[in-house]
């Protein structure tokens, strides 16, 4: 994209159950906008209840893009998202509308706004050796190794995120340069859009209350039946989409591996943990303006109007 003629986009971020979808919808109505989904699970067809997709009647009033664009057995990557979002945003702006990107998948947002790091490929011997080492030593040992060569990146990494840990070790092994430095150099001057990022600030205990209520609502709406339907269609439990929170626990319950009460408690616990990781990711971005919602909606709207105009 021409850096002197970047399209303007509004980006709404925050943890799960914070009210992002509702805020984006209100802004779209006020600003004559269209919504671009940036939730990595809402892209999948058939995953409706457990991903908290906006209902069809809500989407009918304001055009929504990048919802239901992939089958559950397709690996939809951040690069796929950025390419599809670019196309959607281009079409929206060409129609004279305003693009409002909304979602809690931090990597998708980063890929859209700054692109993906062009670091060395490692499909060969280095990655294989690291994977074998991880199988023997465990995730925590690999994260300890990363702390020695890239402490900045390791501080933001969870031991369970083995794919990213191995990727970071791989890049350092191939280049001698920490992946965090690759990311910093790549991000400098690489902004792809003129963007205003709005984050929803919410009290932690209130957020947890909403998360628990949302899980209960999903179950009442038929989450377990939705998962049963996907399994009946032949979608494997090990697919990325089927490992999403709510889906993997429901599948375990249906397989007789745990009781329903236990599955529900795990869903709530893991959703709280996911929300904490989202907050950690977004809090590290100095470009995000944080507001309480709905209390500060008027201020959010005013910022958005001034940004676009």
UniProtKB/TrEMBL annotation:
The keyword Nucleotide-binding applies. GO terms for molecular function: ATP binding; tRNA dimethylallyltransferase activity. GO terms for biological process: tRNA modification. Substrate binds at residues 16-21. Its EC number is 2.5.1.75. InterPro entries: Dimethylallyltransferase, IPT, P-loop_NTPase. This is tRNA dimethylallyltransferase. The gene is miaA.
């Amino acid at each position: 994209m021409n850096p002197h003629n970047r399209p303007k986009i509004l980006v709404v971020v925050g943890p799960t159950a914070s009210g992002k979808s509702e805020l984006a919808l209100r802004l779209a109505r006020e600003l004559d906008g269209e919504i671009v989904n940036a939730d990595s699970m809402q892209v999948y067809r058939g995953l409706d209840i457990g991903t908290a997709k906006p209902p069809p009647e809500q989407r009918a009033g304001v055009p929504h893009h990048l919802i239901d664009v992939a089958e559950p057995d397709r690996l939809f990557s951040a690069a796929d998202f950025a390419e599809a979002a670019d196309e959607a945003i281009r079409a929206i702006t060409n129609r004279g509308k305003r693009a409002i990107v909304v979602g809690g998948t931090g990597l998708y947002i980063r890929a859209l706004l700054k692109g993906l790091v062009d670091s060395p490929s490692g499909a060969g011997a280095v990655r294989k050796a690291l994977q074998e080492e991880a199988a023997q030593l465990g995730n925590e040992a690999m994260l300890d190794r990363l702390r020695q060569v890239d402490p900045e990146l390791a501080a933001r990494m969870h031991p369970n995120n083995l794919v990213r840990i191995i990727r970071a070790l791989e890049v350092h092994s191939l280049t001698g340069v920490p992946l965090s430095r690759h990311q910093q150099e790549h991000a400098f001057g690489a902004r792809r859009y003129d963007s205003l990022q709005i984050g929803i600030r919410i009290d932690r205990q209130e957020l947890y209350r909403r998360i628990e209520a949302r899980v209960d609502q999903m179950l009442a709406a038929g989450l377990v039946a939705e998962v049963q339907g996907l399994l009946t269609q032949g979608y494997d439990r090990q697919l990325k989409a089927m490992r999403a929170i709510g889906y993997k626990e429901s599948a375990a319950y249906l397989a007789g591996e745990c009781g329903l009460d236990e599955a529900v408690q795990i869903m709530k616990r893991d959703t709280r943990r996911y929300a904490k990781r989202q907050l950690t990711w977004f809090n590290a971005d100095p470009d995000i303006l944080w507001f309480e919602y709905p209390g500060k909606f008027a201020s959010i709207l005013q910022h958005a109007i001034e940004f676009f105009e």
